[in-house]
Design goal:
Length: 495
């Protein structure tokens, strides 16, 4: 049975308040607003209003934010998936490693959890950085701006070290074991390891290559996403949405926002891999900076793409998801590992009257409202681990309210038969959203995690996710059983 640490956010946050070992994180009482993207150049002409109805909703919301409009001129490059299989011969970690080796000036990567050591995704990253350094060192003239690599970890509550540095130290140890320097001024090489310093922690997973190629994902750099035939592998299914174009600069702005709220791992230049834990310390990070070539917003296609980000003090991603649900006319397909009510209602499937609609999470009430308007909703979710009870309650509560209104036929829910960590939303076959943001109370609201998602109206992206959803729906899932009390629910409400 899978056991996801992320789902223990409420418990871990409580521990962070009460236990010294988790005290390295700070409370963001005044985190401030997010600074907007600041590319050195933006391709002409300015973006026009989208013709798509749902893209227009996201565009109007984005235009309320400061900064240049980077939503047009983008290109869909594909989905990165885990685990490796016959259908996915190269997983997300391998494809990202190839991108890193091909970088020309900058690599930015942030994720919540990190698994270091041989055979793990963290080592796949480290090996790619080693190869990139070898290329830069062998031919510095080919990299006139030098090379900058930034790795930012999510500050997941650390029960091992009081400074919260366990994961950054493991990442640095792998890199140093491969001979990768943190700095080499002779060739303009800079490697930085950062760790988010606030509670709630960062759940964001994205990487940006050279300021133009961005992937926003749901997978962590852990062994769970490897095939079950490999040590630690659990065949955990997940994906990332990869695009190129101006919107990548919005991803840089997200990375920079996390950077401003992070600490940097500082080590002596000659530190050996075995001495990293003893000689490296977490210190205040310098302000974000980027090589000039990685600060240009470059048009690469015709698709719309929208960066959706949230943290304490920033609610853009929340509002964007709700805008899409509110704009749905016909169909919403949710592929969500987590879909549940607030913590107080996790066991509402036993007695749903204890969790009236007024106490539901915002996303649940908006999903219900969509079905009341006539939208058909399909939901794929999981039935295992600590998420089993809240997921079961989320489905049961929706079914109860729909039955009370005579609208049961507008909702279908199925449990996946394989391990799934995916977080996607497709609306009206017009737009697809992928990223780290669950339909889980810990991912929403003023006390929610830092999260990121990416939306696009590219027809190929929408079609590919539709095909993936249909495959799992038809061949990799089973119906969520009815609760014993459901047949006794009477229709007593009229919309």
């Amino acid at each position: 049975m899978l056991f996801s640490l992320r789902r223990l956010v409420p418990v871990l946050v409580l521990l962070a308040f009460t236990l010294p070992v988790a005290g390295a994180a700070d409370l963001p009482l005044w985190p401030g607003s997010m600074q907007p993207p600041a590319p050195l150049s933006v391709p002409p002409p300015p973006c026009e209003a989208p013709t798509g109805r749902l893209a227009l909703r996201l565009w109007e919301l984005a235009r309320q934010e400061a900064g240049p409009d980077l939503t047009c001129g983008n290109a869909f490059l594909g989905f990165l998936r885990t685990p490796r299989s016959a259908d996915t011969p190269r997983d997300a970690f391998q494809i990202t490693a190839e991108q890193i080796r091909a970088a020309r000036s900058e690599v930015l990567l942030t994720t919540m959890e990190w698994r270091a050591g041989a055979g793990n995704p963290g080592m796949t990253f480290a090996q790619a950085v080693r190869d990139l350094y070898a290329k830069v060192a062998a031919d510095p003239a080919a990299y006139p701006q030098g090379m900058t690599v930034r790795l930012l970890l999510g500050g997941f509550p650390d029960v091992i070290r009081p400074d919260g540095a366990t994961q950054p130290l493991l990442a640095a140890r792998d890199l140093r074991s491969l001979g990768v320097p943190l700095r080499d001024d002779r060739v303009g090489w800079t490697l930085t390891v950062l760790n988010y310093r606030y509670l709630p922690h960062s759940h964001v997973k994205l990487h940006v290559i050279d300021g133009t190629d961005m992937t926003v994902a749901g997978y962590n750099y852990t062994d769970w996403h490897l095939p079950s035939s490999e040590p630690g592998g659990r065949d955990l299914r997940d994906l990332g949405l990869r695009v190129s174009g101006p919107v990548a600069q919005s991803g840089v702005a997200v990375f920079d926002d996390l950077w401003r709220h992070s600490l940097e791992l500082v080590c002596p230049a000659d530190v050996a891999a075995g001495d990293v834990a003893a000689r490296c310390t977490m210190q205040a990070a310098p302000p974000p900076s980027h090589p000039a070539p990685a600060r240009a917003a470059v048009a690469t296609g015709t698709a719309r793409a929208f960066m959706l980000y949230r943290r304490t003090g920033v609610d853009h991603a929340d509002l964007a998801h709700l805008a899409l649900l509110d704009g749905a006319l016909t169909q919403v397909d949710l592929m969500q590992a987590d879909f549940g009510p607030p913590l107080t209602c996790w066991y509402a499937y036993l007695n749903p009257s204890t969790c009236p609609v007024r106490e539901w999470t915002t996303y649940m009430t908006h999903v219900l409202a969509a079905m009341q308007r006539g939208v058909h909703v399909r939901l794929l979710l999981v039935s295992y681990g600590i998420g089993a009870a809240p997921n079961r309650s989320g489905v049961a509560l929706l079914r109860r309210e729909l039955r009370r209104r005579g609208l049961e036929d507008r909702f279908e829910a199925r449990y996946t038969t394989a391990n799934m960590h995916t977080k996607t939303l497709t609306v009206d076959n017009e737009i697809v959203v992928t990223g780290s943001m669950n339909f889980h109370f810990a991912s929403w609201g003023s006390l929610g995690l830092a999260e990121a998602a990416l939306a696009t109206d590219d027809p190929t992206a929408v079609a590919e996710q539709n095909a993936s959803f249909e495959e799992v729906w038809n061949t990799g899932s089973r119906p969520v059983p009815e609760e014993r009390w459901q047949p006794n629910v009477v229709q007593d409400l009229v919309d």
